[in-house]
Write a structure and sequence with these properties.
Blueprint: H1 8-33, H2 44-99, E1 107-109, E2 120-123, E3 128-132, E4 137-141, E5 146-149, H3 150-158, E6 165-169, E7 175-179, E8 185-189, H4 193-196, E9 205-207, H5 214-236, E10 250-253, E11 261-264, H6 286-339, H7 343-377
Antiparallel strand pairs: 1-7, 2-5, 3-4, 3-8, 6-7, 8-9, 10-11
Helix pairs in contact: 1-7, 2-5, 2-6
């Protein structure tokens, strides 16, 4: 069948009508999707650049979850430290309370007051002092005639293995010898002890077997029970299976290439990690109680340092979290600016195109009428 011949006017108006229809279709697509670039065919550069921005924003969004977990893990550790600090304070309170309980038996106190660790006493050469606890003997022998510190005698007593006697200063600055249990204390010397121990005034004597203080024993048991609770708290202060105060660590990644990160190093906030050992001799001697107090004081310092470190790390993670959120917003905004359509403008374009379409249809009809008028001349 032969092609249909159209006049120049009809053909021109028809082409204009088809072009307008294509523009209307494109504008309607933009209004429907909200984008002016819907595929690489529309604008390859903007399409792929926008896609890259969006992909990076999505990658950073995944990292935000890790940062949030890190913040919660630090918060759990901080709460654990706060509670452990309270337990350490309770443990020290029990120790200080035990220190006020006097053992009326099983101890002997020197008569000289106001002594300190640097106080000295004169000893003739080769003077021997013997302490006997019923099982073990401690011998303290002076060398050439010289002045010795009272602390040297106390150290000699406390450093003798298996000796069931402890030496210390009481609140009045007097030398105090205490049996660790119900054993006796026998003090003898190679010469008159009043000459040997004039520095603190303990004479040759035998101290009757002491009785144990049930109150001190009970408080010591409370101290040991608190140690168990500290261990439990260190283990339980976890988030997502990680406890930063039970020697576990956590790495926080800040960028999609994993080239920037922060490792949250865990600490050992268990009783053993804090250096809080169990009580000895059921706290029957002041030496043992003061040793426990020294351990709780050191533990309190360690906990404060841990809390400071975690606080600093938390600020770093929060700062990076805010930075990442703002970066994601910038990337998403940049991506949208490249491909999103201006709906107001596209709406106006559609209205103009529809008007043009109507005009083109009218012009096409007029062209067709002109052709029909010519045909009527041949009728």
């Amino acid at each position: 069948m032969a092609d249909i011949l159209l006049s120049a006017g009809v053909r021109s108006n028809l082409l204009a009508l088809q072009s307008t229809a294509d523009l209307i279709t494109r504008t309607q697509t933009r209004l429907a999707t909200g984008k002016k670039v819907n595929s690489a065919l529309d604008d390859a550069f903007n399409f792929f650049t926008s896609k890259a921005f969006q992909q990076r924003a999505e990658d950073l969004s995944f990292l935000l979850s890790g940062m949030d977990i890190a913040v919660k893990t630090i918060e759990a550790a901080d709460k654990g430290i706060s509670t452990i600090q309270t337990l350490v304070e309770n443990a020290e309170s029990a120790a200080r309370q035990a220190l006020t309980i006097d053992r009326s038996t099983g101890s002997v106190t020197g008569t000289v007051s106001g002594l300190t660790s640097t106080s000295t006493f004169a000893t003739p050469s080769n003077v021997t002092l013997t302490l006997f606890d019923g099982t073990t003997t401690m011998t303290f022998t002076s060398g050439a005639s010289t002045n010795l510190t009272v602390q040297s005698f106390i150290d000699a007593v406390n450093n003798t293995a298996n000796l069931k006697v402890k030496a210390s200063f009481n609140d009045a600055g007097q030398v105090l010898l205490e049996a660790t249990g119900t054993n006796t204390i026998v003090i003898t010397g190679s010469m008159a002890l009043t000459a040997t121990l004039t520095g603190f005034g303990i004479g040759q004597t035998t101290v009757a077997a002491g009785t144990l203080s049930s109150t001190r024993t009970s408080l010591a048991a409370q101290f040991d029970a608190i140690r168990t609770q500290i261990n439990s708290l260190a283990s339980d202060s976890s988030f997502n299976g990680v406890s930063l105060i039970n020697s576990q660590s956590l790495k926080v990644v800040f960028n999609e290439q994993a080239t920037t990160s922060l490792t949250l190093n865990g600490v050992n906030a268990t009783a053993a990690g804090l250096g809080i050992t169990g009580t000895t001799n059921s706290w029957q001697t002041n030496v043992d109680i003061r040793a426990s107090i020294a351990l709780t004081d050191a533990a309190a310092v360690s906990l404060r340092n841990y809390a400071t470190t975690f606080s600093n790390n938390n600020q770093i993670v929060l700062a990076r979290q805010d930075f990442t959120k703002n970066l994601i917003k910038s990337l998403e905004s940049g991506s949208e600016n490249l491909v999103l359509a201006d709906t107001n403008q596209e709406g106006a374009n559609l209205l103009a195109l529809q008007t043009r379409q109507q005009l083109s249809q009218t012009a096409l009809a007029l062209s067709a009428q002109n052709d029909q008028a010519i045909l009527r001349l041949f009728g």
